[in-house]
Amino acid sequence: MTFLRAFALILMACLAVTGPRSWAADASNWVEGRGSRVRLIAGDAEPRERWAGVEIALDPGFKTYWRTPGESGLPPVFDWARSTNVAAVEPLWPAPSRFEDGGGVAYGYGGTVVLPVRVTPREPDKPVHLRLNLEYGVCKDLCIPAQADLSLDLPERAEPASSGLIRQARGRVPQPQALGAEGDLAVLDVAPTSEGGKPRIAVRVRAPAGAAPRLFVEGPDDWFFAAAETMDAAGSGSGGAQGTFRVEVDPPPSGGTGAVPLRLTLVAGDRAIETGISLDGTLLSR
Question: Which residues pair with 204 in a beta bridge?
């Protein structure tokens, strides 16, 4: 028996034991940038959706940015237009960290971060090919834009080795929660206020005792909410410690006349929640 024939028989036997599987790669090639590299990774394939991830690995001392970068920085911009068999693509955002540098306070990630991506195929029983043009900011002493073109076929059935990374990242995405919800991590109420002639919002929260919670406030594009560094403690109980973050508001020149939607992300350790509310813009513009 020749070597090639013997190899072919062994390969056929292995396939008979393991059954059919997708031979698509679990990840795209890395694209190198200044202080960073980025790639697409494949995740679970569910009946009507597929999962992928944008993995960004940063050199020591470098950071990249959340969807709202804070006082400085560039949020990621995703262009999936060249993908095939894709009806919708939704990036999700693990809870960010807070950084201070010469440009002010920024929100983002250091080390390695995976941004989970929920992909809805047009035809669930056919292959999905992702093509991503990604623009993102990288910062150490100076902040610069970076760009990467990435491509990946998502498997239809097999569970890629990178699925675990995406599941872990999905676990760090803040969970939606109503205002005033029960539990030891919650946004209890939000009230407009004014201190020193500047409009502010007072955000009362509950967090586990001993935690050092962080609050991130987002509003419409033309509004700015200053970083809330610490909360004023107001006692604790069996449900956790309560306190208030006081956030300065910088409204647009025209002010606000209608409802202003706010998204509040509260983080304590490895847990995070997200609460959406709406406030009267005229009360925030005084």
Answer: 189, 244
CATH 2.60.40.1250 fits 23-173, yes or no: yes
Write the pLDDT tens digit of every residue in 195-236: 777 889 999 999 998 888 999 999 998 888 987 767 776 655
Domain residue extents for the chain: 23-173, 186-284
In the DSSP assignment, the letter for residue 155 is: P
Query: What percentage of the chain exceeds 90 in pLDDT?
Result: 62
pTM, two decimals, is 0.86
User: What is the sign of the dihedral through the CA atoms of 203, 208, 212 and 214?
Assistant: negative
How much of the chain, in percent, has pLDDT values that exceed 70? 88
Strands (DSSP E) along the chain, which ranges?
Answer: 31-33, 36-46, 49-58, 63-70, 77-79, 88-91, 97-101, 104-110, 112-120, 128-139, 143-154, 175-176, 186-195, 198-207, 214-218, 224-225, 232-237, 240-250, 259-268, 271-280
211, two tokens:
């935690």
| Alpha-carbon span 166 to 13, nearest angstrom | 32
Within a 13 Å sphere around the CA of 76, how many CA atoms are in the beta-carbon half? 25
Residue 9 has what pLDDT?
39
Name which CATH class applies to 186-284.
Answer: mainly beta
- Tally Cβ neighbours within 10 Å of residue 242: 18
- Residue pair 112/137 in contact by the 8 Å Cβ criterion: no
